[in-house]
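Journal club prep — side note

Before the paper discussion, L.F. wants everyone to see what a predicted structure for a comparable chain looks like in token form. Sequence:
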Amino acid sequence: MVALGRVVKPHGVRGCIRILLFNPRSESFSKLKTVYLKSPATNGLKSFGVQQASRHKQLFIVQLEGVNNLGEAEALRDWLVYAPKSELSELGEDEYYYYELIGMDAYSESGELIGRIKGFITTPAHDVLVIKNGDKELMLPWIDGVMVDVDQKNGRVVLETVGLIVDSEQG
């Protein structure tokens, strides 16, 4: 299962919910027939059919089967939204979902270990790659040309790091 986002609040009085995706630029959500919501209180997963999903700015407005009023929608606030990996859209060559890169070791083109990929931050201009290096976090703009190579078999990503200071003694 892959976490796609979280329910932020109800939308209207007929049971629709607003879902904030962890990757707001993703279109995968619009094609899903079923999603799984995880309760923050119990960590239990519950399956819901997707009746309708439409993009609204940075959110998706979604009508789930069995959620028919404001009260039922409100009860889902802050639940995490998951989908099986097998139901995500196929990507092209040299394209990756963020979850596939998280946890990989990041190296410079010269072979120096930068750290481990911790996650991504979405900003209006572009996403930001977050790399954990000891007790520090390094951030790189996730723009064209930053990712040089991905070796999924060995859990390794090579990044263009011009101007990045990795050694804390240099800065």
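L.F.'s comment for the group: Helices lie at 70-74, 98-101. Keep this in mind when we get to the figures.
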